[in-house]
Amino acid sequence: MDASSATARTAHVVAGVDFGADSAAVAQALIGVGVWVGGVGGRIVETEAYDRDDPASHSFAGPTARNAAMFGPPGRADVSRSYGIHWCLNFVCREAGHGAGVLIRALEPTDGLDTMRARRGVDDPRLLCSGPGRVGQALGIDASFNGFALDAPPFALAPRGANAVVLTGPRIGISRAADVPWRFGAAGSRFLSRPFR
DNA sequence: CTTAGGATCGCCT
DNA sequence: GGCGATCCTAAGC
Description:
This protein is of the alpha+beta class. It is built from three helices and ten strands. The chain has helices at residues 23-29, 113-120, 132-139, and strands spanning 13-14, 17-18, 34-37, 40-50, 77-82, 86-93, 100-111, 155-158, 166-169, 183-186. Strands 3, 4, 5, 6, 7, 8, 9 and 10 form an eight-stranded antiparallel beta sheet that branches. A two-stranded antiparallel sheet has the order 1-2. β5 (77-82) and β6 form a beta hairpin. The relative contact order is 0.22. The chain binds a DNA duplex through β5, β6 and α3.
């Protein structure tokens, strides 16, 4: 690293994850990492990577008011609407202005289960955070969380413990670039939105 | 267990 | 005017 160079980037390391890296590497590194919002959360078991030159990404068409956080500095939150109804939580990657991120698709809930149940209206732990829309609802995410740093309240991240066994597969629910294997998941987890094969 | 349809909003062509 | 990084419910086999 060359700190005197104009192109040198800050490490942006949170919970052992270098958010300055490319989105696929970050998505893989996030499996097993703990995430909490206001004390409610758990262990990340499923992610998907998105990048600027990626027809499936919300950042593909360039910066807009809506995806501004995605083009901000890495290590922050980006919140987007899905199908006009759900809030999806992304973690920004690369460097400011690039427009890359990782979609948090599923958690294994460990803390604040009762809060999640109240927000989600279901009891089964497997249905609390198993899908991007469910994660957003269970954690109480909305557009006001755009641009929040991941290493400051209400957010908190914790490094993963033992090295997780990470599975890879095609991303879900998209029509463009559907063959790119940028979906990652914790092997054997019962909290995936859908199984890997 | 699989399939189908509706809800609902911002940005695109 | 159409579509999407989804979820839920209901109905059919």
